[in-house]
Amino acid sequence: MDKIDEEIIRLLKKDGRMSLAEISREVGLSSPTIKDRIGKLEEDGVILGYRPLLEYSKLGLGMTAFIGLTLDFHTCCQGDVDEALKAMGEVVEAHYTDGEWDMLIRVQARDPAGLMAFLQKLNAVPGITNSRTIISLANPVRSV
C-alpha cells in the first residue's frame, strides 16, 4: 500500500459513493487505474465492503448505549456469546477488550424501555456474568 492507496481510502471513507471519475480527478490517475487499485484493496482485504452510515434516530432507534460485559469463559465458549450477540438486532458493534470488561458492545434502542428489554435478553445469555451500561448523550465525533 502506498500514498496513492492511502488517498483513495481517505476519499472513500469521506464518501463511499464517490465515483471513479471523482477519485481519479482528486488523485491524478486514470479511472481504470483507480478501479484496479480499489479492486486490489478489496482483494487484499483492506476494503471489506460498502455500507450506509445510518442516522439511527431517524430509524426510531435514537438511544445509544455502550455495555461492558464480564464473561465467564469456564461456563461457555466465546463463540456462543458471539453468536448470541449477532442474533440480537440491537447490537451494532462488539469488541473483545483488555481491562475492566472482557467485551464492549454498542447497542441502539428506541427508548429506555427498549434498552431495558434488551438488557433482560442480554443477561439471559449463558456466559455473561455481569454488565455495565453507559448511555450516550451525544456523538460529536463520528467516523465511518
CATH superfamily of the largest domain: Lrp/AsnC effector binding domain/regulation of amino acid metabolism (RAM) domain
What is the CATH class of the largest domain? Alpha Beta
Structural category is alpha+beta
* Helix content estimate: 25-40%
Largest sheet: 4 strands, antiparallel
Apparent shape: elongated
Runs with pLDDT <50, length 5+? none
Listing every helix as H and every strand as E from the N terminus to the C terminus, the arrangement reads: HHHEHEEHE
Descriptive tags:
144 residues, alpha+beta, Arc Repressor Mutant, subunit A, Alpha-Beta Plaits, 2 domains, 4-stranded antiparallel sheet, 5 helices, 4 strands
Give an overview in words:
The protein has 5 helices and 4 strands. By secondary structure, it is of the alpha+beta class. The chain folds into 2 domains: 3-43, Winged helix-like DNA-binding domain superfamily/Winged helix DNA-binding domain (Arc Repressor Mutant, subunit A, Orthogonal Bundle); 56-135, Lrp/AsnC effector binding domain/regulation of amino acid metabolism (RAM) domain (Alpha-Beta Plaits). Helix 2 packs across helix 3 (31-43). The chain is elongated, with a radius of gyration of 20 Å. The two termini are 20 Å apart. 12% of the residues are buried. The mean pLDDT is 94.
